[in-house]
Amino acid sequence: MKELSPRALAKKKKIQLAAQRLFLKNGFSNTSMDTVTKEAKVSKQTIYSYYESKESLLYDVFQNLISEIDFEKEFQLTQRIEINNLNDLTAILEKIAERISKSLIHPEYLGLVRIILAEMSHFPELGELFKEAVPKQIMGIITKILLHANQKGIIEIDENNMDIIVRMLIGPVLTYILLDGLLVPKNKVNAISSQKVSSIVHYFVNSIS
Question: Residues annotated as DNA-binding region (predicted)?
Fold first, then answer.
């Protein structure tokens, strides 16, 4: 793919943001490429030079949003912290769980996830993008941390069951996001409190130590 100039990148970003606003406001089905063209203040020729269809535009909008939720950076920060005991492990897992809960309960993120759930039967690659970029990334980061703690003898876990163990931690957090975020009206979304996040992590650490 030809590398875009700074000017072209800025124009593409303008189209992405316009489409994101319209998708969140009107939904995917009720947003046309014509309305995106008007919102972005670009020509139809310009928008189709970047996106061959509305579906490819939605894919790019979602990909751009999840790229901003970079949990790998969070892991790189935690690598600078020594894990010498259960308190250290608990503190690191609390930071990550807090980051997950705040990022995934964001209104724009929830809005796009609702659109993706509605359109996934017609656009299955969006589901794969979401799974690879969010759940698998989170699980991979927590796995690395737990393996490190296990190798240092801080915890004792069966590494063959790592997938189950990691889900024991992120499952409760995602349940709050599902029940108090995705499945309630937009004006009734409740972010999970730091106290609840801390309790989830403490119960988890106690269960594996």
Answer: 32-51
What residues contact 163, with CB distance under 8 A and at least 6 apart? 139
Query: Is 59 domain-assigned?
Result: no
Same domain, 43 and 91: no
Which range marks the domain in which residue 39 is found? 6-53
Distance spanning both ends of the chain, measured CA to CA = 50
Question: 68-100: per-residue pLDDT in tens?
Answer: 666 666 556 556 668 899 999 999 999 889 888
Structurally, the chain folds into a number of domains equal to 2
Which amino acid, 53?
A: S
pLDDT of residue 35: 96
DSSP, collapsed to helix, strand or coil, labels residue 51 as coil
Do residue 79 and residue 171 come from a single domain?
Answer: yes
Confidence category of residue 2, pLDDT binned at 50, 70, 90: low
- The answer to whether residues 193 and 96 belong to one domain is yes
Best CA proximity match to 200, nearest among 177, 170, 165:
170
Please answer whether residues 160 and 141 qualify as being in contact, where contact means their C-beta atoms are separated by less than 8 angstroms.
no
